[in-house]
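The protein record reproduced below.
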Amino acid sequence: MVLYSHSRISAFRQCPYKFRLKYIDKVRPEIEQTIESFLGMLVHDTLERLYRDLRFQKMNTVKDLLKYYNEQWEKNWNTAILIVRKGYTPENYRMMGEKFIADYYEKHKPFDQAKTVGLEQRIMIDLSGDGKYKLQGYIDRLALRSDGTYEVHDYKTNSNLPLNEYLNNDRQLAIYAMAVRKNYPDAEKIKLIWHFLSFNKDTVLEKTDEELEQLRKDVISDIKEIESTAKFPTNKTKLCEWCEFRPMCPEWSHIAKTEAMTIKEFLKDSGVVLVNRYADLTEKKKAVEDEMNRVREAIVRYAREHNVRTLGGSGYDAKVWSAEKFKFPGKNEEGRQDLEAFLQKSGLIKDVSALDVFLLSQKMDEPDWPHDIKKALRKFGRRELIEKIYLKKKDSGE
């Protein structure tokens, strides 16, 4: 039986290929850590020390905490830690962490709002009741207020401030709320508190019993999907830049490899040469296509002005074909959804191969298609003049 966690499920939702490497193949990543995760780890550790010492009646000053933070930075820093954002140094991040700690300290001192129940507290949830689907996690800080309210605290060092809609859909703290409700029978009220340290802002939400029950079902559904998955495709997103498996991912491995090359090595790499050649040919093709379109328009215009259908050339004749056809909105064009809904409702979608607009256009000219259907479809499209040129090689005369 696999013991799941929020991070394990999130990895699958983010990128199934990353999930496979990390949890199935158990591949050791080439990138040890990003500086964002390194910073987050040390800030969490420093705030944990603050509240752990308070339980022993030791009140640290902000100077004490910053001293501890900087000692841990020096002790644990290494050059293998990845800095994704160009133009920033380790010192920039170190000072940012100092500000997070100092701002939090100033805002929450003397830290008597609630009594700390647990720090980095491990929780376990039996989602199905039969031990088949179990989930574990670690709460940054669990606290109890004097009015009996339990608080689940989470420290965030990321540089963006999520909207309430995002937080309402955030699963991690809600999962922790499920565990608190089960493990602490007196927990009638549970508050979820996110501390966004970059903005010195706290956000508080509560979950209803109905929301937690729906979450339980959703998590079980996710686990079933993971366990039934045979293929683990890549999912290319902005988050890839911070992925520890980027150097071995088929989407990024060649790019990561070439980033480490000198200019000379880069220009000699066979993959780089092929891409550059293909890009060059694509540009030339575009230029040729643009020129062909201009000549085509000139041929059509000439044929129309001189009332001819076939023009003679040196080695080829050019036949100009024209006809009015009905033009319907393409896949991402305005009116497409209304057209699809009409065809589904009319039961005609099968006649146009799941809405092949070219085939639908052909159907509009078929005499045996119902007149009332054609009439209804006209509001979704318009007639356009289509003109094509067909080249025919001249006979050699032999």
In short: The beta strands are 3-5, 115-126, 134-144, 150-156, 190-196, 201-205, 310-312, 316-327, 382-393. The first strand starts at residue 3 and ends at 5. The chain has a mean pLDDT of 88.
